[in-house]
Amino acid sequence: MGIVEGLKVLVTASTRGLGRGAAEVLLDQGAYVVINGRNPENVSKALSELKSRYGERVHGVVADLTSKEDVYRLVDEAVKYLGGLDSLVYITGPPRPGKFTEIGVDEWEYNARLLILNAIWLVNAALPHLRKSSNPSIVFSTSIAVKEPIPYLALSNVLRIGIHGLMKTLARELAPEGIRVNAVLPGHIETERNRRLIEDRALREGKTYEEVYREYASEIPMRRLGKPTEFGWVVTFLVSKYASYVTGASIPVDGGLLRSHF
Ligand SMILES: NC(=O)c1ccc[n+]([C@@H]2O[C@H](COP(=O)([O-])OP(=O)(O)OC[C@H]3O[C@@H](n4cnc5c(N)ncnc54)[C@H](OP(=O)(O)O)[C@@H]3O)[C@@H](O)[C@H]2O)c1
């Protein structure tokens, strides 16, 4: 018997990387899961891999999280497939790396949709369904950048803070209704996105991929990058009834990288 047996969960941005890690642990632990991505090929590839292990407990919806219409349709289709909704696990696509001065005004607008506005749309669409659940929760995935800004990730440093304002606001407002709202802050997890960040830094600093990878790892007290399923286990715990008295919390999954006390 898994720790989220029978729970109905929508995990956004989940054909690979962190979202996929979360979806896999949730499925392993008995949940029914709807995955999502923008690219139809990625969604059907991920879906056929997951269906071969979890059968009809998993479904996929193609939707672009920067489009309000797509986000409302995504929740609608997820609820139809699952027959309700117990948990919304919010993960989004990655912003491009860069300094503040390298990012144009239009790019800020696009990334505001990618990194913050879509969370507001998703919560609005999901809330009426979560209110009908007996174990409702929302888990927002952000980044350790919300506690300690990361050089060359201006978009993430600036915009993700808003998700924490949303998380703390919702946690207090929804606690009397029994809806728990928490955040997970990944550090360096081995995903395609992280491989691109390492390549980018290697190019900027005239180093090899392996040199930068070793530098990344040496900055982490646990001396290695994390696995998507290690992130997924923390998400799954927060979705489960074992986190029944946890709300408004921000949990880093970073191998000890953050230095701040809180
Ligand atoms: N990996 C880390 O160490 C780390 C650390 C901190 C924060 N983060 C953040 O966590 C998020 C996930 O990172 P990741 O490393 O898992 O990235 P990834 O390996 O590149 O995976 C990204 C996933 O998001 C989907 N996606 C991208 N844009 C989308 C959109 N507009 N609408 C719907 N789905 C979309 C992709 O599917 P499609 O391509 O099919 O759309 C894919 O499934 C990003 O926001 C990233 O910045 C990652």
UniProtKB/TrEMBL annotation:
Organism classification: Archaea, Thermoproteota, Thermoprotei, Desulfurococcales, Desulfurococcaceae
Residues in coiled coil: none
Protein known as: Short-chain dehydrogenase
Sample GO molecular function, one term: oxidoreductase activity
Family stated for the protein in its record: Belongs to the short-chain dehydrogenases/reductases (SDR) family.
CDD domains the record matches: BKR_like_SDR_like
Alphabetical keyword list: Oxidoreductase
UniProt KW Oxidoreductase keyword: yes
